[in-house]
Design brief:
With about 625 residues, the chain is an alpha/beta fold. It has a domain of about 90 residues: Immunoglobulin-like. Helix content is about 25%, strand content about 15%. An eight-stranded parallel beta sheet has the order 15-14-13-8-3-2-17-16. It is globular and about 80 Å long. It starts with a strand and ends with a strand.
Length: about 625
């Protein structure tokens, strides 16, 4: 077996290195930091490693904003660091203070959960929680005061850009905070309808058509909404809706009549007002998302209004992309207008590589790809990868499932993107963490095996097609107790009892401690993976071909190809908890095979291809080019 020039790939990655920056402790590897990449203004998203972070749970840089400047108790300001459903104090200054921690791990793009001003607390008193997560927006023009100020945000973006890191905002167009109530749902005996939040059954278009009040019987506006046909979504049609009580009678408490910004969002005509979604059929588009006010996104004014809102953030803060929440709960015609307008505006602002991707909570590529082919979004979160990678690595399902997934990549091809720019991830703030999926897969899962599986899952994510996304805390072995609030631990010292009793993967620490440990085995491992990815252009957007996939736990092999034959890598994974062998039909050529990363194993070459045996839960990478004696 030939040896590889171990510096050759690193030189490729370092070709764009203008200056080398080091962390304060001087321990960083320059090849890991984003300065080793092309400048962020010119860099395609395929070069990036992304970090998904919830600012409230990351680091508290300024304790004076913990209550958001609001008087009263936790049901007023929402701050209670002992409760998993309230603000804990993390903020934008905290993110800025920890940028080198992220850069040293090889993170080059930071995706923040929504940071716009939220309704501090929602829910009936006995079940109230706070808007720490950012999805209950009232003001789309300023950041939440619990997180700091717009000036703090500008400082953060500038500091990230100075490190050659991108900043991506999580944005919402489907709904606002829950402000609108419905008279028909309030009990007659209610003494305080301003605070009671009842659930209202969804009322369909068929039973409660838009022509009920103020329209013209037989108006095509009804058919237009049912079929999402933009030709009917005109100002002339919408002007017929003189009365918004076709389904329910909307009611806004006096204290909240002007709480939303921009001011047009306070007009109840810009909401569907049909009651709560049943998560199926038309209600998935037109129903309130768990009570949140569902916007009338078919309306021309709403489309134009949100395009203007998010153009503002691009122009004023020069950010680098948007992740769009709840995409499948908004009509296609909205995205067909919104996405091209946003991309065009970003280019006009000099941001040529602006990245837009949507959240469609569905693992079926046929369903996911609808939003790239029809709705005109460049990319969607790859829930298909998340589900199958978890099944294969954590739950001992067959690697053949991965081969079947990648066989459908062509579905994503569109004028704006392809499967190569899909964000890939292993867990998130809604579904839970990869650490949880691994440690609960079997009752007898030992600590060493859990760490091996965690590393294997991340190696798969970093080396397969797509943009790897690390969920904050995974680099410290966080596991969580489940989904939603149970997967949103603090990186800084936690006071939440049911966070602090969690066992971390690869560490004896707990969320009760500060968890910015650069010596954690997962932090170090993800740093190594970032260097590997950065050292091989084939891993940054190169074509991918599946070569072998077992129909039981075992070998998964694929190749990654650089442009114009510049590089060819063979990646082999063993997902089984035992040694596994494979014979991979592969034309090697005259360059031979040389090891570049992972577990070095013996390789047998013959006219039929490559044969190898891999130890349990391991992977290896070989170059089929750039080898030297």
């Amino acid at each position: 077996m030939r040896k590889r020039n171990k510096y050759a790939g690193a030189l490729l990655a370092a070709a764009f290195l203008a200056t080398t920056c080091f962390a304060a402790d001087g321990t960083t590897d320059a090849a890991a930091r984003p300065e080793a990449l092309r400048p962020y203004t010119q860099r395609p998203i395929t070069d990036d490693v992304m970090y998904f972070v919830m600012p409230d749970r990351f680091f508290n840089g300024d304790p004076t904003n913990d209550r958001g400047g609001i008087e009263g108790d936790r049901l007023n300001h929402g701050f209670d660091p002992t409760h998993k459903g309230f603000y804990h104090g993390g903020d934008i200054e905290g993110l800025t203070a920890k940028l080198d921690y992220l850069a040293d791990m090889g993170i080059s793009a930071i995706w923040l959960t929504p940071i716009f001003k939220n309704k501090p607390v929602q829910g009936n008193p006995e079940g109230a929680s706070a808007g720490y997560h950012g999805y209950w927006i009232t003001d789309f023009t300023q950041i939440d005061p619990h997180l700091g100020s717009n000036d703090d945000l500008k400082a953060f973006v500038n500091a990230a850009h100075a490190r050659n890191m991108k900043v991506i905002f999580d944005i919402i167009t489907n709904h606002t905070a829950d402000v609108i109530k419905y008279d028909e749902c309030l009990p007659e005996s209610s003494l305080d309808k301003d605070t009671l939040i009842p659930l209202c059954d969804y009322r369909s278009i068929a039973d409660y058509p838009y022509t009920t009040h103020g329209g013209v019987e037989g108006s095509p506006i009804n058919d237009g909404f049912l079929g999402d046909t933009p030709e009917h979504q005109t100002q002339a049609n919408f002007s017929r809706l003189k009365d918004q009580t076709f389904a329910y009678t909307p009611y806004v408490p006096e204290t909240e009549k002007d709480v939303k910004v921009p001011a047009w969002l306070n007009d109840v005509r810009y909401y569907h007002n049909r009651g709560d979604s049943e998560w199926k059929g038309e209600s998935s588009l037109y129903g309130d998302f768990a009570g949140l006010d569902d916007l009338f996104t078919e309306h021309p004014d709403v489309k134009a209004g949100f395009i203007d809102i998010y153009k503002f953030w691009i122009s004023e803060f020069k950010i680098d992309g948007f992740r769009i929440d709840t995409v499948r709960h908004v009509n296609d015609s909205f995205w067909q207008a919104f996405s091209p307008a946003i991309l065009e505006h970003a280019k006009a602002e000099g941001i040529e590589q602006f990245y837009v991707f949507g959240e469609v909570y569905d693992g079926n590529p046929e369903h996911l790809s609808h939003y790239t082919r029809v709705a005109k979004l460049p990319a969607v979160l790859d829930f298909g990868f998340q589900g199958i990678a978890t099944d294969v690595i954590a739950r001992d399902k067959a690697p053949k499932l991965l081969a079947n997934l990648y066989a459908q990549d062509g579905l994503y091809d569109s004028e704006y993107g392809s499967a190569s720019i899909l964000p890939t991830f292993l867990g998130n703030h809604d579904m839970g963490r990869i650490g949880r999926f691994i440690t609960t897969a079997r009752d007898d899962m030992g600590a060493d095996e859990a760490l091996m599986r965690d590393k294997l899952a991340h190696a798969l994510m970093y080396t397969t097609r797509g943009i790897p996304v690390v969920y904050y805390g995974d680099e410290q072995g966080f596991t969580g107790d489940g989904h939603d609030q149970d997967a949103r631990e603090n990186m800084f010292e936690s006071q939440v009892e049911n966070y602090n009793d969690n066992t971390l993967i690869g560490s004896a620490s707990s969320p009760a401690a500060d968890n910015f440990d650069r010596s954690h085995p997962l932090y170090e491992y993800l740093t190594e993976l970032a260097v590997l990815r950065r050292s091989h252009l084939a891993l940054m957007g190169g074509a991918q071909n599946v070569l072998f996939a077992d129909d039981k736990p075992g070998i998964f092999a694929f190749e990654r190809l650089g442009t114009e034959g510049s590089e060819r890598l063979l990646m082999i994974f063993n997902t089984a908890n035992r040694d596994a062998a494979a014979n991979i039909a592969l034309a090697v050529g005259e360059t031979g095979v040389c090891h570049v990363a992972g577990t070095e194993t013996s390789i047998n070459l013959d006219k039929n291809g490559v044969g190898t045996v891999l130890p349990p839960l391991s992977w290896t990478a070989y170059s089929l080019s750039d080898c030297v004696e």
